[in-house]
Design a protein that fits this description.
The protein has ten helices and two strands, in the order αααααββααααα. It has about 200 residues and is mainly alpha-helical.
Length: about 200
Amino acid sequence: MGNFYNHFKKVCKHKYWVGYYCFKAGIPWRGIKHDMSKFSPIEFLESVKYYQGNRSPIDRCKEVNGWSKAWQHHKGRNDHHYEYFIDDFDHGGKPLKMPPECAIEMLCDYLGAGRAYSGDSFSYADELEWWKKKTQNPLAMHPVTKMFINFELTKIAKAETSKDFNLKKLLNNKQLRWEYAVCEGIWRSTKCSII
């Protein structure tokens, strides 16, 4: 029963922080509906079984079983995961560029997960370090989306030490969408120069 309550509390804490960042980023509805599938029996019960408190129970389930039924369910219903945007599996899989609002929610999801799991020791610099470790291995993420997340986490981590740190300004929706478009432009021009 302890894992049931603790997992429920962790999901709510995660949803709170993702909502916090989504509201700052101008996508409040995405923050409100974020990860609602985690309360479905298929996701919730598996997560209770593999709950550890300091990381995603899905990761633990994958270590034990080689896959996670909860993850298969979750990533197929939540377009804020880059794995949702992979197609052409018969030919090895092709990452697709995420729409800007999905990529912005993914950024908020990463920040919210960092807050939920790190608690009082959370820092944007640590979140950037987590991202750098994550990207040391190949990701099936579209280069534009990857460039955008890298840019945003770096920008926020650098600004964190500033005395006039303003998260709402850093997560301004118009600015984020413009920066996503810039990342796409850089990717397109690089791709064209290679050809």
